[in-house]
From TrEMBL:
Broad class of enzyme this protein falls into: hydrolase
InterPro entries the UniProt entry points to: ABC_transporter-like_ATP-bd, ABC_transporter-like_CS, ABC_transpr_MalK/UgpC-like, OB_MalK-like, P-loop_NTPase
UniProt keyword Iron present: no
Annotated keywords: ATP-binding, Hydrolase, Nucleotide-binding
Enzyme Commission code: 3.6.3.20
Molecular function as annotated in GO: ATP binding; ATP hydrolysis activity
Domain of life of the native organism: Bacteria
Protein's name according to its UniProt entry: Glycerol-3-phosphate transporter ATP-binding subunit
Gene name of this polypeptide: ugpC_3
Length: 210
C-alpha cells in the first residue's frame, strides 16, 4: 500500500517485493495469509515491508519482545545477516541487554530519557561512564562497593578496614571517594599461606570483613 501511495507502477512494486522476499527467504510464503505464518515469519514480513521502501535508516522498536526465547535467538542471527547484506544504518530499541550487546556496533544506554553513555559494547561494559551504566550493564549484574583510594594511591579502602591493592592507573585519584565495580566470581576466599581456596568453594554463604 505504501508503494502505491508513492505512485509506483505495478511492475516496480512486484520487483521490489520479490527482491525483499529473496533477501528474507520468504519466496515460498508470498501467497499465504497472515494467520498461516509463524511468529518468526511474521517478523520477517514486517522487515520486508520496510525493505521495499528502500529507507535510509531502519528503526526496530522491540521487534523480538513477543517471541519465545528460542525464536529470539534465531531472529537475532537473521537480523545480523540482514544488516550485513543491506549495509543500511539501523536504530534498534530494546530492553534486552543480550540483544543490545550482540547486535550493536554502538550502544546508547538511556536512563529516564537521558543518554548516559554512547560507545561500543566493549567500551560500555568495561568503562561505564556513570554509576547507572555500571550497575545496569552485565548479566548477572555487577557488584558495586563504596570506598576511597588511599592517600598514597596504592590501596582501595572499604568501610570496616578492608583494603584492596590498586594499579598505577588509580594513583591519580589518591584520596578520592570511588565506587569499585566487579563481576560475580571475581573474588574468592583463601586463608593466609594456604595453597587451596576455601573448603566452601561453590557453596553460597555470607562473610564479614573485620
Amino acid at each position: 500500500m505504501g508503494l502505491k501511495i508513492r505512485g509506483m507502477g505495478k511492475g516496480l512494486i512486484a520487483e521490489r517485493v520479490q527482491e525483499a522476499a529473496r533477501i528474507l527467504e520468504l519466496d515460498g510464503l508470498l501467497k499465504r495469509r497472515p494467520r498461516e505464518l509463524s511468529g518468526g515469519q511474521r517478523q520477517r514480513v514486517a522487515m520486508g515491508r520496510a525493505i521495499v521502501r528502500d529507507p535510509a535508516v531502519f528503526l526496530f522498536d522491540e521487534p523480538l519482545s513477543n517471541l519465545d526465547a528460542k525464536l529470539r535467538v534465531q531472529m537475532r542471527l537473521e537480523l545480523q545477516q540482514l544488516h550485513r547484506r543491506l549495509k543500511t544504518t539501523s536504530l534498534y530499541v530494546t530492553h534486552d541487554q543480550v540483544e543490545a550487546m550482540t547486535l550493536a556496533q554502538r550502544v546508547m544506554v538511556m536512563n529516564k530519557g537521558v543518554a548516559e553513555q554512547i560507545g561500543t559494547p566493549v567500551e560500555v561494559y568495561e568503562k561505564p561512564a556513570s554509576r547507572f551504566v555500571a550497575s545496569f550493564i552485565g548479566s548477572p549484574a555487577m557488584n558495586l562497593l563504596e570506598g576511597r583510594i588511599s592517600d598514597d594511591g596504592g590501596r582501595f579502602e572499604l568501610a570496616g578496614g578492608m583494603q584492596l591493592p590498586t594499579n598505577h592507573e588509580h594513583r591519580r585519584h589518591a584520596g578520592r571517594k570511588m565506587t569499585l565495580r566487579y563481576p560475580s566470581g571475581a573474588f574468592y576466599l583463601k586463608l593466609a599461606g594456604a595453597r587451596r581456596h576455601s573448603a566452601a568453594d561453590g557453596h553460597p554463604g555470607n562473610f564479614r570483613c573485620r
